[in-house]
Amino acid sequence: MKTSADVVICGAGIAGISAAFYLARRGVRDILLVDEGAPLELTSSQSTECYRNWWPDPQMLALMNRSIDLLEQLATESGNVFGLNRRGYVYVTAEETRIPALMERALQISRLGAGPLRRHTYEHSTYEPSEPEGYKGAPAGADLLVGSQLLQRHFPGLAGQALAALHVRRAGWLSAQQLGMYLLESARRAGVRFVSSRVMSLELSKGRVSGVRLSKGGTVSTRTFINAAGPYLRDVGKLANVDLPVQTELHLKAAFNDVLGVIDRAAPLLIWDDPQSLPWEEDERSALADDPATRWLTGPFPPGAHTRPEGGAGSRMALMLWEYTAKPMEAVWPPPLDPLYPEVALRGLATMLPGLRAYFGHAPRPILDGGYYTKTAENRPLVGPMGVDGAYMIGALSGFGIMSACGVGDLLAAHLTTDALPAYAPSFTLTRYSDPAYVRDLGKLGDGGQL
Q: What's the whole-model pTM score?
């Protein structure tokens, strides 16, 4: 193996691969990607694969708009090899008192640059349903549909008590694996190399990165190191004596074969936006409440149960997701999986899609997996210098790794070259935590728009 490189990237997930791709596009040729496993093997392979430009944080919205611009450019140049669509996200509520807040929040995000907001009623509607495939010519912004009659016209599987739905339009999903492989193969053609190894330590000379010691192949001489280690971002940061302010949470998802066709194969991502309790029969609820180990299943659950169809023509698979118990934990692989998750997610989704009740007690065997969200307190990424000369980072892409990958890869490449940085760049650097006012106001950023 060649024992030197201009740039060494630790981590061949979607973030590391994107960084390599955009550096290569800027003319950097001697790039070495290092990962103990196969490319796209860990969190990237467990992605929901969705994207959106709908963020209450103006800096995140600007980053996502840029990232989606880049995604669309790649889709155009590749013949859409990764199947980018614009089906959108649909947030549904059955609580009349929540409609004004839903509209006000939508207006705020619209004004930040997400696109226009259009309001529709049954009597006055110009709403255009999304196309199941493709991304060109789709409307931007969002559509607020108000009234159960209008919802049933366009989304007949929704619960009858649903009263309003916000359809976010610059959103949808894609094949994360195909996107990642397109970026990787393009980068390889530009000279990027990959080695399966573990980064053991960083070598410093006069305070600057001078080499990377690998578990296989000795030491690679380099003056530039990029930490793109996903759920191990903090561990790798410590190799440079930098304690990055991140934590990891386990997030699960389940897939099942929707043999009854409850979920429309052309549906957008459907999200139940109300808190709820799970639908149990009275005897089931009583039995669960009597056992301290299961009592939590009878209690209130947060908003956010969501689903979408999965697979191409002929597929009946559907994804179920709901982050109702996410807690910080150390990243271990393989991740611990909760066997109750598919049942809880199914019942949560049945509130929005009552047809799913037909699966209670005898649902097709689900496929359960999960990955780690690596996140900062305010749920903004870390992109830029890592605090040691020659060391950089690209990570903390909590729940938005696929949708932000092109944007953060492009941003990191700008940090390493002479390209001008976008206005949002300082919001994602480590130095933001040196600003007392920023640290004081962290709580005001909330969850940063995480589903």
A: 0.96
